[in-house]
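Long-time lurker. I teach an intro course on protein structure, and each term I like to show students one example going from raw sequence to a predicted 3D structure in token notation. This year I'd like something fresh instead of my usual example. Would anyone be willing to generate the tokens for the chain below so I can use it in lecture? Attribution to the forum is fine with me.
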Amino acid sequence: MTRLQRLVLFTLALCAMPMAFAQQTFVGVRLKEIARAEGVQDNALIGYGLVVGLAGSGDTSRNHATLQSVGNTLSHFGINVTPEDLNSRNVAAVMVTTTLPAFAEPGQKLDVSVASIGDARSLSGGTLLLAPLDGPDGQLYALAQGAISTGSYKVQSFGSSEQKNHPTAGNVPEGATVQRAAPLGDLGTAGRINIILYQPDFTTATRVAQAIRRAIPGATATAAHAGKVVVDFGAGSPSAVQNIAALESVMVEPDQVARVVVNERTGTVVSGGDVRLASVTISQGDLRVSIKTDYLVSQPDGVFVDPGRNVRTAVVPESKIRVNEDDARMVNLHNGATVADLIAALRSIHLSTRDVISVLQSIKAAGALRGELLIQ
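-- Reply from a regular --
Happy to contribute to a lecture. Here you go:
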């Protein structure tokens, strides 16, 4: 190979490197991961039921609704009793909830959640009696029944108690059976499908429309707004199901929002990779105040002193106050630093998670956080 040929090959390799790098940096996801077809949605179901078989940990006699429900249940079996005749703590009134997925058909099994609405101490070991589950339209869609799994316990004896997890709520795996098909919204005509984004964003909606036009020849896609993309396949297109299946496999690069999510209850801080900071200086001091009180007893002199009206033992409090203020610790961050750089710097001066959250709030108030701060 001559020197000229080697030079030409080397030049072609350099020209191909930017293209290969661009292909590697493209991070795409399927459209079905970030959006859904309009009309495809889950439905919430709710019902009321009784849990039986509890070992004395059910509702007390103060819950008249529970006693009345037990009486009504027994009346279906030809046993007529009044609520006053019942005195058992082996039964608890509960609310039963589940989610009916789109396209669910009769006979499909669903997991249900059960939660006590009375003063039961525990649902562990109980069995849910047949409970109808209704939708928002008042129609019956499923029936639930089965043994409850709580994964917890609560034991009490002589004023002492031992508890693990949450014993007044549990679930019944595959405890509900669908009786009526799930209500299905309008999927649109065979030639027109509306795509709804899970996280509305103008940039992402525009990229979705562009990706659909590239991937499906002949289809026109337009971003109606930040959360909706209208796709038109034209006349003579296949069924709506085939069109939705074709749309789900389209690769899209969603836009990442610069956002920091802070949970003050758990002390969790989650930041996106594009969150940047302006030039900022943070000074954090530590002030500790300690107050200690000792109680001294003043006893009258003499062993055989006869206590009188003005002679008694006195308790005298003596307080000691001590204030320690450490030197302020400084952190300097350059322009363009990320939240990860900030947290690493704050950790280096041994700040707790609570203090880190307070610093983030102050930086946002100062206008140095180039993103959205979401506090949960």
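Some talking points for your students: Residues 17-26 have pLDDT under 50 and may be disordered. The two ends are 66 Å apart (CA to CA).
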